[in-house]
Structures are given as structure tokens and as C-alpha cells.
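Hi X.,

You mentioned you wanted examples for the new student's onboarding notes, showing what a folding record looks like when two proteins sit in one file. Here is a clean example. The first protein comes first, with its sequence line followed by its C-alpha cells.
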Amino acid sequence: QVQLVESGGGLVQPGGSLRLSCAASGSIFSIYAMGWYRQAPGARRELVAVATSGGSSNYADSVKGRFTISRDNAKNAVYLQMNSLKLEDTAVYYCMLNSDIIYWGKGTLVTVSA
């Protein structure tokens, strides 16, 4: 069984920065991709950024140039550096691992507020 544990969420002012971390543990045989999704109140869960094991990364248009995803393959970890945060970035951020089966973390809340 695979477990994903996120950390790093919190309250930040507009223009500020946060770094999210996610560590995977358990029976992981192969990882195709790890990434981050988010869900704002009343909205659907949406892709934020994903990093494949082949080295490519994809970002939602709304976060391009502000967020950076990175991975530590040795630790089965993925990170999301979020800069220039906006009010609309407020959401629960979920870590995702794609290993034939999609696994999800429980989420970490990011609140951007003045």
C-alpha cells in the first residue's frame, strides 16, 4: 500500500511564497509521474503541475512562471515551490503519484489572504 504525506501548507499574504512537500512510502515499484492538484471551495480538482519520471514537467497556465515542481527520485518525493501567490491560489493542494494506479495524499490547505 502506498501512502502520500503532504506538508508545507499554511496562511500567506498575496505575493508571498510557500513550498509544499510530499513524500511517498510503501510498496512502490515504478513511478511514472508525481504532481500536484488543487481544489478550491466549490470548484473541481484541477491540475497544478506534474513531473514525469522522464524528466518533463507540465503546469497549469494559471501558475506558469510562478510555481516550480521538482522531484527527488531517491526519496520518492515531490515538491512545489509557489511564488507570487495570489488570492485565487487558495485551495487544498493534493499530492498525486502515478504508478499504474493513481494515489492521492490527504491534502494540505494553502490560504492566500491579506
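Then the second protein repeats the pattern, sequence line and then C-alpha cells:
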Amino acid sequence: QVQLVESGGDVVQAGGSLRLSCAASGRTSSIYHMGWFRQAPGKEREFVAGISRSGGSGVYADSVKGRFTISRDNAKNTVYLQMNSLKPEDTAVYYCAVTGQSGTYNVWGQGTQVTVSS
């Protein structure tokens, strides 16, 4: 089994930056893709960004392209989300998730709150 622990959530003013981290433990050799999702109050959980096992540029939701950057350090079993130019609409609980070989995100962290004030 894989366990995920997110950190880095905070309250920040619009235009500011935050860096989220997600550390994986357990059977980390089974991890393929790593990603970030978010859920705002009253809304469904949505995909934010994902990165493959080999790293690379990642894929992003249109709403965060050019502002957020996902990266991973396989030696540390950690995925990061650098968030710049934050907007109030980025306020949400951010969840880290990973896939196995199937490509389905099926292991989730507990979430970390990001609040962007205007």
C-alpha cells in the first residue's frame, strides 16, 4: 500500500505564491503518475496537474496553465505543486493522488487547505 501526506497549504493574498508538497511512503515502487486535484466548497473535485513517472513538463488544467508547475523527486518519493499568481478562485482543498500501472488515480492524500484572499 501507498500512503500520501500533503503539506504546504496556507492563507495567502491574491497574487502570492505557495508550494505544496506530497510525500509518498509504503510501496512507492508501484507509483506511476502523480497528480494534484482540488475541491472548492460546493464544487466537485477537479484535476489540477499531473506528471508521469519519468517527470517532464506535466499536464495541467486550463485554469492553472502558466501559473502552476508540477514537479517530482523520485529519490524522495515526493511531488510538488508550485503555485504562482494565485487567485481567489484557487481557494480549495488540494489533494495529492497517485496511479499504479493502470493509470487510474486510486490512492489519495488527506488534503491541504489553500485559501487565497482578495
